Amino acid sequence: MRTSLKLSVLLALGACGAAHGQIYKCQPPGGSVEFTDINRGSYCKLMDLPGMTVPAPPRRAGPAPSPRNAQPAPVATPGAFPRVDSAEQRARDADRRGILEDELKNETQKLAELRREFNNGEPERRGDERNYAKYQERVAAMRDSISRSEKNVDALKREIANIR
């Protein structure tokens, strides 16, 4: 059965005379065989199928590729791109700053409430937490919430600092 499936896949791939590209046969350890056009690792082998042509990668004219840390060339703004005058932009920035400061205030209040409830790692046990594992689960969830809230506060402060 497997051999006939492999044969039918190979025949179907070979029948596509106009297909250009690479076909890989991937067989992970303990896994099933998969034919794909994506190399998924060391367990994939490039197949040499008759009638399949593999085009050479296109050559780029111009200078050699730049190093990894190079900054991309600045893109010029198209002439038809809408412009905003400086007064309008300042008003938008002020609105944005106000919204972010409100969010920061709310997030700071939420963080203070979470820390108060957390009680330095020993929150008060509830009546429904007779099982100690449930209590530990709630404490871990509280730690995660505090961490997430602290990250939100930091992100909001960074965003406010980035406003012109």
Describe the overall structure.
With 164 residues, this protein is mainly alpha-helical. It has 2 domains: 2-46, no CATH class; 86-162. It has 3 helices and 3 strands, in the order αβββαα. The chain has helices at residues 2-15, 86-118, 132-162, and strands at residues 24-26, 34-36, 44-46. Strands 2-1-3 form a 3-stranded antiparallel sheet, with no helix packed on it. The longest helix is centred in the middle third of the chain and has 33 residues, at 86-118. It starts with a helix and ends with a helix. This is DUF4124 domain-containing protein.
Q: What is the strand and helix layout of this fold?
A:
Layout lengths: L1 H14 L8 E3 L7 E3 L7 E3 L39 H33 L13 H31 L2
Antiparallel strand pairs: 1-2, 1-3
